[in-house]
C-alpha cells in the first residue's frame, strides 16, 4: 500500500511511504511523463514523482533539514546550472502553471536533454547561456523571487551575486550548492564553505542556513540566504 502526505515543513513537497520505505516526492505537473526514470505513484487520482536524494542537491538539502525552501507555487525562479533538468523538473512541479523557472545551462550537449524536458513543461524556459555573463540573457529572463545556483565554478558565489544584482527581487531568496572540490581541492570543505559565506555576505546576502549534504553529495553544502 502506498501512503502519501504533504511534507510538514515545505510547500509542494510530499512524503511517500510504500513497501520500499520513505521517499520525497513532488506532484507531477505532467502526469504520465518521467524525466529521469523516477518511479511514479498514483494516489487518489493524483500522480507523484519520487525525488532522488542522490541526484538532486535540493532534495538532499530538504532531507538534511534546511531551514526553508523559498520555492513555492507561483514562484519565478532563475536556475543557474540546470543541466539536463532533473532538479529543475521538480522545481517545475512545485511552482505549478503560474510559476516560471528560467533554466540557464552552458553545455550544448546537455541542453538538448533540458529542451526535451521543457517541451512537456511549459513553465520551464531552457536557455543556452553562460551564468558568468548575466546580461547575455536579459531579454529572456524576468525578475525572480528565487535564484537557485548549482554550477561547478571556483567563483560560483560571485557569479550568483552578479545575477542577483540584475534579476533578484528586493525580498528575494537564494539557494546555492557549494561544491568545495570545484573551488579548491587543497583546502578543507568547511574552510571553503566559510569563505563562500563571507563572499555572499559582503555582497549583501544574509546567510540564513547552511547544511552539509553528505552522504548524498560528498563535500557539498547548501546555503540559504536573502537580501538584508
From TrEMBL:
Highest taxon, organism lineage: Archaea
MF annotations from Gene Ontology: histone H2AQ104 methyltransferase activity; RNA binding; rRNA methyltransferase activity
Documented EC number(s): 2.1.1.-
SUPFAM superfamilies: S-adenosyl-L-methionine-dependent methyltransferases (SSF53335)
GO annotation terms (biological process): box C/D sno(s)RNA 3'-end processing; tRNA processing
Enzyme class: transferase
Binding site for S-adenosyl-L-methionine: 86-87, 105-106, 130-131, 150-153
InterPro entries to which the protein is assigned, alphabetical: Fibrillarin, SAM-dependent_MTases_sf
Assembly mode: Interacts with nop5. Component of box C/D small ribonucleoprotein (sRNP) particles that contain rpl7ae, FlpA and nop5, plus a guide RNA.
HAMAP family: RNA_methyltransf_FlpA
The protein, known as: Fibrillarin-like rRNA/tRNA 2'-O-methyltransferase
Gene for this chain: flpA
Amino acid at each position: 500500500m502506498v501512503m502519501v502526505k504533504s511534507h510538514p515543513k515545505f510547500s509542494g513537497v510530499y512524503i511517500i511511504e510504500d513497501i520500499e520505505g520513505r521517499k520525497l516526492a513532488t506532484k507531477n505537473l505532467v502526469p504520465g511523463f518521467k524525466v529521469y526514470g523516477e518511479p511514479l505513484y498514483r494516489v487518489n487520482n493524483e500522480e507523484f514523482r519520487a525525488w532522488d536524494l542522490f541526484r538532486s542537491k535540493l532534495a538532499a538539502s530538504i532531507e538534511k533539514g534546511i531551514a526553508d525552501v523559498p520555492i513555492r507555487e507561483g514562484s519565478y525562479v532563475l536556475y543557474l546550472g540546470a543541466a539536463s533538468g532533473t532538479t529543475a523538473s521538480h522545481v517545475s512541479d512545485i511552482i505549478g502553471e503560474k510559476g516560471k523557472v528560467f533554466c540557464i545551462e552552458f553545455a550544448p550537449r546537455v541542453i538538448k536533454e533540458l529542451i526535451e524536458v521543457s517541451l512537456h513543461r511549459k513553465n520551464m524556459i531552457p536557455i543556452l547561456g553562460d551564468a558568468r555573463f548575466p546580461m547575455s540573457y536579459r531579454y529572456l529572463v524576468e525578475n525572480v523571487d528565487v535564484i537557485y545556483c548549482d554550477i561547478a565554478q571556483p567563483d560560483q558565489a560571485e557569479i550568483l551575486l552578479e545575477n542577483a544584482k540584475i534579476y533578484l527581487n528586493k525580498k528575494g531568496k537564494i539557494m546555492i550548492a557549494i561544491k568545495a572540490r570545484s573551488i579548491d581541492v587543497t583546502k578543507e570543505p568547511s574552510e571553503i564553505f566559510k569563505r563562500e559565506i563571507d563572499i555572499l555576505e559582503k555582497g549583501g546576502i544574509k546567510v540564513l542556513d547552511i547544511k552539509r549534504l553528505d552522504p548524498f553529495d560528498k563535500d557539498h553544502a547548501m546555503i540559504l540566504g536573502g537580501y538584508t
